[in-house]
Structures are given as C-alpha cells and as structure tokens.
Amino acid sequence: FMLTILKEFFLNISIILFPVFMYPFFHRTDNRLVYNRTLYFFFFSLAIVFAMSLPINIHGLIFDFRAIPLTIGSLYGGFHVSCALYAVLLLFRYLQNNPNQLVYAVSLLPTLLIVYFYIRRYMALGLRHKMIAAATLFLAIRVFSLVSYTALNDGIASLIDAKYVSTFFIMVFQSVVCALYVLLFERLRSVLYIQQEVINSEKIKIVSDIAASVAHEIRNPLTSVRGFIQLLGEERLDEGKRGFYEKICLEELDRAQLIISDYLTLAKPGLETNEPIEIGAEIGYIRNILLSYANYQNVEIVCGVEDEPLWIAGDKYKFRQALINIGKNAIEAMKGEGVLDISVSEHNGRIAIQISDTGVGMTADQIARLGTPYYSTKEKGTGLGTMVSFSIIKNMNGTIRVQSKVGKGTKYVLSFPRAEAPAQTAAGADGG
Ligand code: ADP
Ligand code: MG
Known about the structure:
alpha+beta; two-stranded antiparallel sheet; 13 helices; binds adenosine-5'-diphosphate; binds magnesium ion
C-alpha cells in the first residue's frame, strides 16, 4: 500500500515539475512578452490538467496538486496567464463532470484577487521571500477556496469536522513543496541567465580587443588628412591639385567614419531576433571589422562571396559575434603574417562559410577541446569565444567542421540551411 502511495506521489511530483523540465528547451532571454506568456500558459495548464486527472487517494482522502502549478504559473506568468490558468482549471473540472461546478467557481475565483496583488510585488523579492510568498499564496488560495466551497455547500457548521485536520496537514505539506518548487525554478532561471551573461561578456571582450586596432585604423586617415590640409594651405597651388587633395581628404574622412560606425554596431546590444540575413553583406561587414584587427597584426584578408544574394536565418548581431570570434582566433593564430580567407558557397540548399588561416594550427586533441569552456592557449584568452560561437551557430541550425594541421593552418567550415529571401527586397536597408 505504501508503495502505491509513493508511486502516485512521485508521479504527481513529476507532473507538476513538467514545466521545469521543459523550460530550458524553450525559454528565450529576450523580453518577448507574448512568447513567454504563451509558454508559461501552455506548460502550466498541461501540469494542471494532468494533476487533476491523476489525483492521489489515501484511505478515501482524495487530493491533487493542481494548486501548485496554478500558483507558480500565476506568479511567473503574470496576471493574464493567471486568468487563463484559472479558466483552464474550471473548464477541465467541468469536462470531468464534477458536481457543484458553480459553487466551485464562486469559491475559487475570488482568489484571483489575492493572486493579482501578489504578482505585482513578487518579481522584486529575493529568493527566500519568493519561497515564502509562493507558499503563503498557495495556502491562501487553498484555504480560501476550501472554506468557501464547504460553507456554500454544507453550511459553516460542517467546517468543524475531523477530516479537515488531515486536509490541513496535506495543505501545509503542499505549500512546502511549493516553496521548494520556487527554489528549483529560481535556480534554473539563474543558470540560464548566467549562460546569457557569458555570451554578453564575451562580446564585450571582442569589442575591447578590437578597440585598439580601430583606434589605430582611425589614426591613419586623420594623419593623412592633416597632411593634405597643410598642402592646401600653400599659396601657389593650381586648381587641379587643390581638387585632388580635397577629394582625398573627403575619402579618408569617410573611411574613418565607416570604421567608427561599423565598430559601434558591433558594440550595440540589440534584442535577439530571428530574421533573414544576407550573407554577402554580413561577410562584408565582418571583413571590415576584422580588417582593422588584421592590419594591426600584419595579416591579409581575402574574401570570396557569390554574386547572387544568399540568405540564412538567425540573429544578425549574434551571427556577427560568432564569426568575428572565429576570424579573430584565426588572425591571432597567424602571429604577424599570413592570409585569412573567408569564402561563401551554396550547395544543395545549404550555405557553407569557409574560414581558413595559415597560422599555427592545432593537434587533434586541441580540436577536440575547441568549444569547451575555459580552454585557451593564450595569455589573455578567456577560452569562452569558441564556446559562444559554437552555441550561436548551433542555435541557427548550423554545423561546424574544423580541419587543422600544426604549423600549416586551420580551416573552419560552417554550414547553414539556406533561407528564403524576404518578400520585399530589404537588402541594403540595414547593412550595418
Ligand atoms: P581565446 O581566443 O580567448 O583563447 P577561444 O575559445 O576563442 O578562446 O579559443 C580557444 C583556443 O582554441 C585558443 O586559445 C586557441 O588555442 C585555439 N584556436 C581557436 N581557433 C584557432 C585557430 N584558427 N588556429 C589555431 N588555434 C586556434
Ligand atoms: Mg577567441
């Protein structure tokens, strides 16, 4: 008998934890309200429905865990989700053909008001207070609805009954489960949050590494503009030469401006999106950013891109971050001289991006460790760059192949599914 109880109990725990299992696979860190709410609604209403379908029965004392997903889902999903979860609960109870549907609804619905006041404060609380808040909210919902349901059905007097003592203990026990649920969920959320922070901090690292070379790149045009302005100041200068000097000055200043604006969009935070990316334009942008860095390290860059515009899907800024790190590693591997070759080709509905360098190369062991955190052979390396790049690429349904020979060089081949071109040709509307 104990075993059956235990079995039912574990089954119910897994049911209410179902949203926790699913959450990491579907969550998005950007603030997409509708997406996140739908997600919460979907997972927690499934948990409610299953919890209601498989109640626990101890010696005729029947109870289930429906109020836990109701509480947690409401607290994290917000008031809209909370209303929807209440609706699902009532609807499912109706479909189950339970008696006293109206009384049940009347005794449950006022708790929505309690939920409403809890939600407004909840997210600002610390972990311990969140646990306490969730447990008390759970108790409040349960006690209120139980008391009003019984009172409405059988009169106030019937509340003084021995069977409610055990019901009360079960409720206290469940509210502890509720608090532990919050602990688990908060831990999970913070792990996912830290993962996102690693991506962001790696981006800041790239931005700061490239800053020195950008500054260097801007100094060149400024110096030459200065020289030409000095020449323009000379008295006996014929019109032809004057025009020529002016043209060079403007060109050099435009170049400096381009470098600065490219650099700024690299540093820009940007919300996560999933949009069509035109590979040619992006490779052009990435090349520009890497060019400053390459010039700084005496490396040459060659690019081969097909004429036809090719599209893949993903987040443009993340994609840039992924490729810039791979390119940056390649440049760093060449230590002084070499050629970085970036080329794009299309084959069987997939788009391949090849990034090859003539640098120090890697052994098979080193290749195997690529993408694992904190693996770095550089004095100031973080060993997070390839990990972040690989995770971005995999998120875009891309694959990565690395070939390398020690002393000869390394070749990265990234392959992405080809995407449809967007309806209106927005190409060039936002090239960087
Ligand atoms: P970091 O660049 O901070 O060291 P990464 O994760 O970007 O961290 O790279 C990890 C390691 O992988 C590098 O330290 C380097 O040893 C090796 N590596 C990555 N790309 C190349 C490459 N193109 N050629 C040689 N070694 C590479
Ligand atoms: Mg790196």
